[in-house]
UniProtKB/TrEMBL annotation:
Cofactor: Zn(2+)
Function of the protein: Oxidizes mannitol to mannose. Provides the initial step by which translocated mannitol is committed to central metabolism and, by regulating mannitol pool size, is important in regulating salt tolerance at the cellular level.
PROSITE patterns associated with the record: ADH_ZINC
Family designation: Belongs to the zinc-containing alcohol dehydrogenase family.
Record-level Gene Ontology MF annotations: mannitol dehydrogenase activity; zinc ion binding
Alphabetical list of InterPro entries matching this protein: ADH-like_C, ADH-like_N, ADH_Zn_CS, CAD-like, ER, GroES-like_sf, NAD(P)-bd_dom_sf
Record-listed E.C. numbers: 1.1.1.255
Residue ranges with Polar residues bias: 1-12
Protein name: mannitol dehydrogenase
Pfam families: ADH_N, ADH_zinc_N
Length: 376
């Protein structure tokens, strides 16, 4: 990571030379809300950010979206969490300071930070603008910098981030509703582009009409693609067609509807993170069609091979996007007036929001008004 190239300072303790972390050497006081244990309950926390290096940007956090990953991590449902844990990786803020060698940003700029804040910069993935697939990627919270200090997320007042992992937010985008694009947006934009499902006149299915799915519909429609929403909930039909502009709607549990749509789609973007059958989705694909999974079920899905063979079909995956593509996504969103549908909440409502998120009681993304409601 550019700004961490210098070695930590050393100091003498009890006659022994030991390394001092950046936090110890020049701590930046910060304040946020953190989970302390697997209960996932969040409460106020004072902590330290690392000092600002020559390629770093300091920003005041204004808004932060709540991703389902935040809930998983707060409760340690993936077994990788360390506490205290400050979540948040859908971050929009304003630059308040820049290092001496920062080139892309100035004080006052509106900026965004997503799911990663560091990578090795030298592997094949990094060399091809795919930092999100770097084996040494540093995620925005619950990880370690190369100097051993902890990363903390956007449920906080300030961030210190290498400029490479920050994007410009165009002036015409609403900052609060743009925040979820830093995760949900790039998660669906990237596979539409990579798998060639962005050509006008194509027919793409979107499975699940939640935080990811509703943004996928907006991006695909802006690309000129015919969109069919596939959902278990018949009551989402009007929302999908009239509000989000989808062309058609399938109830996945209705065998008649699904059978009538057999072989009609060039691709399907599957955003569902619960266990569900994928054979019906593969059946929707034309010959050489592509089913792309962006949801992450806790247990393996059953993969039927025969329909893949006889239809030359592909099942693939996708996880976020690199920094160059993330900026392209934000610029595309600004050009086409695409933002997430959000419910703006105060910081002290966050635990209630997490409970509602667990019940999928949100339309479609909670965003915390950090700048106005985080009280130190």
């Amino acid at each position: 990571m550019h700004s961490l190239s210098a070695l930590p300072n050393r100091t003498s303790r009890g006659g022994k030379m030991v390394e001092k972390s950046y936090e110890e050497e020049n701590p930046s006081e910060a304040f946020g809300w953190a989970a302390r244990d697997q209960s996932g309950v969040l409460s106020p926390l004072r902590f330290s950010r690392r000092s600002m290096g020559e390629k770093d940007v300091r920003l005041k956090v204004l808004f932060c979206g709540i991703c389902h990953t935040d809930l998983h991590m707060a409760k340690n449902e993936w077994g990788t969490s360390t506490y205290p844990l400050v979540p948040g990786h859908e971050i929009v803020g304003q630059v308040t300071g820049v290092g001496s060698k920062v080139e892309k940003f100035r004080v006052g700029d509106k900026v965004g930070v997503g799911g990663m804040i560091g990578s090795c910069h030298s592997c094949d993935s990094c060399s091809n603008n795919l930092e999100n697939y770097c084996s040494e990627v540093i995620i925005t919270y619950g990880a370690k910098y190369q100097d051993g200090t902890t990363t903390y997320g956007g449920y906080s007042d300030i961030m210190v981030v290498d400029e490479h992992f920050i994007v410009h937010i165009p002036d015409n985008l609403s900052l609060d509703a743009a925040a979820p694009l830093l995760c949900a947006g790039i998660t669906v934009f990237s596979p539409l582009r990579f798998y060639g499902l962005d050509k006008p006149g194509m027919h793409v299915g979107v499975v699940g009409l939640g935080g990811l799915g509703h943004v996928a519909v907006k991006f695909a429609k802006a690309m000129g693609v015919k969109v069919t929403v596939i959902s278990t909930s018949p009551n989402k039909k009007q929302e999908a067609l009239e509000h989000l502009g989808a062309d058609s709607f399938l109830v996945s549990r209705d065998q008649g509807q699904m059978q009538a749509a057999t072989g009609t789609m060039d691709g399907v973007i599957d955003t569902v993170s619960a266990i569900h059958p994928i054979l019906p989705l593969i059946s929707l694909l034309k010959t050489q069609g592509k089913l792309v999974l962006v949801g992450a079920p806790e247990k393996p899905l059953e993969l039927p091979v025969f329909p893949l063979i006889v239809g030359r079909k592909i099942v693939g995956g996708s996880a976020g996007g690199g920094m160059q593509e993330t900026q392209e996504m934000i610029d595309f969103a600004a050009k086409n007036n695409i933002t997430a549908d959000i419910e703006l909440i105060s910081m002290d409502y966050v635990n209630t929001a997490m409970e509602r998120l667990l019940k999928t009681d949100v339309r479609y993304r909670f965003v915390i008004d950090i700048g106005n409601t985080l009280k130190n």
